[in-house]
Amino acid sequence: MLTTGPFSTAKKDPAQRAALARIKDWTRAQFRLSEDTTISVAEVACALPGCPPLETVIIFWTAPDRRHHYKIFKPAQQVVQDDLPPWWMRDALIVSDDFSCSCC
């Protein structure tokens, strides 16, 4: 699943769609995820002070109640494979049930 924000041009821009798909493929390979693992990649705008204007958010599930979440602080088209966390950090990316954040 590729996700876009309300102001995203991903539906119109083939380069943006390709960047989101590439990040999804890299995430699947990096974290050794099966083909049936749900992965969501989105480029979102952030208006919070100190936040980059565009960032890429990646979410995937390894169990129905085990969501992993991380951000790359650059637009999707600028993301390179080395920007992804190493595979052994997968469990550190698990979002706890009590996680609260107004930005994501």
Summary keywords:
single chain; 104 residues; alpha+beta; Double Stranded RNA Binding Domain; 3-stranded antiparallel β-sheet
In a few lines, what is going on in this structure?
16% of the residues lie in helices and 23% in strands.
CATH topology name: Double Stranded RNA Binding Domain
- Strand line-up across the major sheet: 1-2-3
* Binned strand content: 15-25%
Determine the fraction of residues in helical runs and give it as a percent range. Answer: 10-25%
Individual helix count: 1
Helix-strand topology string: HEEE
The CATH architecture designation is 2-Layer Sandwich
DSSP strand tally: 3
Low-confidence stretches: 1-9
Alpha-beta classification: alpha+beta
Average the pLDDT over all residues and give the rounded result.
86
Give the CATH class: Alpha Beta
Count of distinct structural domains: 1
Biggest β-sheet: count, sense, barrel? Answer: 3 strands, antiparallel
Radius of gyration (CA) equals 13 Å
The outline comes out as globular
Distance separating the two termini: 18 Å
Report on this model:
The chain is built from one helix and three strands, in the order αβββ. The protein is of the alpha+beta class. The protein has one domain (14-93): Double Stranded RNA Binding Domain (2-Layer Sandwich). The chain is globular and about 30 Å long. The model is unreliable at 1-9 (pLDDT under 50).
Which helices and strands occur, and which strands form pairs?
Layout: H1 14-30, E1 39-45, E2 54-63, E3 66-72
Antiparallel strand pairs: 1-2, 2-3
